[in-house]
Amino acid sequence: MAKWTRILLELVKFRIAFFSTLSTSTGFILSRREWSTEIILPILGVFFLASGSCALNQYQEREHDQRMDRTRGRPIPSKKLSPSAALTFSISLLLFGSVILLLGAPKSALGLGLFAMLWYNGFYTLLKRKTAFAAIPGALIGAIPPLIGWVSGKGLFSLDPPILAISFFFFIWQVPHFWLLLLKFGRDYEKAGLPSLSRIFTSLQLSRITFIWIFATAAACMMMPLFGMVESHLIHGSLFFIAFWLLWKSLKLISAPYHPFSSEFHFKSINSYALVVMILLTVDHLFY
Fold first, then answer.
1. pLDDT tens digit string along 228-248?
2. Do residues 259 and 250 make contact, with C-beta atoms less than 8 angstroms apart?
3. What structural domains does the chain harbor?
4. Half-sphere exposure (CA, 13 Å, Cβ side) for 169?
5. What is the pLDDT of residue 259?
6. With contact defined as beta carbons under 8 Å apart, do 91 and 50 qualify?
7. Residue 143's closest CA among 133, 151, 155?
8. What is the pTM of this model?
9. Half-sphere CA count of 185, side-chain side, radius 13 A
10. Residues 264-268: contacts with CB within 8 Å, 24+ apart?
């Protein structure tokens, strides 16, 4: 049982699905300014939709995954799970998540969830086989979960300035999140026959471009108070502090080639940064 649990959690990319759930809950709390049991069905719906979409992505990319050192241990290429079983499981999760959103959130939330799935599995997954810059339009996927939480909390579709600001933040954050992986696994993408930025830029050039995206991520965070999103001066100051912390930690990206550089360290840093931003915004709206 434990073995199958590990296999299925790997298939659905649990950490990605869980992160989507956290950003959904952030959007919900930002709209309500309180905790409510009504949050449960929207975040469950997003979790199952995200899990199903990730599992479907592994089915779609099973041949490329077989050629990459980083991914050949995944359930399908390693033959721990058959492609047909993975496809069936992914469709089941997508249907289950859709039903939960249909019953527990506005119809617009379901529409946004299905749009994110189609964008990820029907557009981005295919586009990244054609261009090394697919991560930029693909980053739109990261902006959708908080918006689902927002409309679920509001009870209707609403594109108010605060949710546009946080969705923009997650859109920008998604690009360096992916490109930091390229710094470490760019040759792996080439081996799989996928377009890779490592064919276009040197490691130093890609590092510096990634720093620009990290700078834009920090700037998007620091602009949030301008959209009426932050009430507490303490939270406002904390957002500025962690933005400068991220930029300081990322300075090695623009250093000369002889400086030591760990893409994995920066990858963890920018993910931790996004998590802390969500926590601070949630605290601000629950307690201030």
1. 888 888 998 999 999 999 999
2. no
3. 1-157 (1.10.357.140), 160-288 (1.20.120)
4. 32
5. 46
6. no
7. 151
8. 0.91
9. 18
10. 264/184, 266/180, 266/210, 266/214, 267/177, 267/180, 267/181, 267/184
Show the low-confidence residues of the chain (pLDDT under 50). Answer: 258-261
Return the DSSP state at 250: G
The two tokens of residue 210 are 């990634």
Here the tokens at position 231 are 């009430």
| CB 223 within 8 Å of CB 165 | yes
Which residue do the tokens 């699905």 mark? 17
Quick one: tokens of 171? Answer: 């859109």
For residue 218, give the H/E element and its range.
helix 203-222
Coil vs helix vs strand at 223: coil
- What is the Cα 210 distance to its own chain's centre? 16
> 23 and 149 in contact (C-beta within 8 Å)?
yes
- Cβ contact 23:170 at 8 Å: yes
Tokens standing for 209? 């471009």
